[in-house]
What does this fold into?
Amino acid sequence: MAELCTNSAEISLGKLFSAVLKRDLLLSFRRKSDLVNPLIFFVMVATLFPLGVSPEPNFLADVAPGVVWVAALLATLLSLDGIFRSDYEDGTLEQVILSPQPLMVVCLAKVMAHWMTTGLPLALMSPLLGVMLFLPASAMFGMVLSLLIGTLVLSLIGAIGAGLTVGLKRGGVLISLLVLPLYIPVLIFGSGAVQAAVAGLPLEGYLALLGAMLALGIVLAPFAISASVRISVSG
It folds into this structure.
């Protein structure tokens, strides 16, 4: 990252995005716990739910959309604090802010890396949990597609809270308080898409709303994320 900061505006936005994305992915794969912990938490929540409520198949099939989506939301929330934390602690984030490179592109690349190591694996693992919760096979595609779109929205929103709390020693709890209210619409429409798929109803409307949230997030979130990082680091 330091090399990216010292190279001036000669680097194109695409190359900058690609370089930051590759760097963050490489660091994530070196820290195995960052990859495994959200997945373990995701599986544990879905596994413990039948033990704490009821193992009856019809009941689990009815609540499976909500359980899977809540588990994915909490697993994403668990990993948000690490988006900027390591770069802040070693001083890289401050160098990025002072460099001529656009901070919005760097933040967007870091969010994408977070989604690729958290949201994407959660979405790909969700059919396994769907089988455990007796979710009909006809609803699997809708669940995976809704999670692919929705978890990226969760990462974009969560990065705003991560940026605001990166300067705090224990910002994990504060991130939850900041972003959980903003997560509610994503949770409603995401679980609603899976419920519609279970009932055999059209789910395009729910997916369209999630897609609209994603488009809005990609356009507006980088501005909010970069501003929150500047405020937190400067403060």
Residues 193 and 206 are 5 Å apart (CA to CA). Residues 5-10 have pLDDT under 50 and may be disordered. The longest helix spans residues 204-234. The chain has one domain: 2-234.
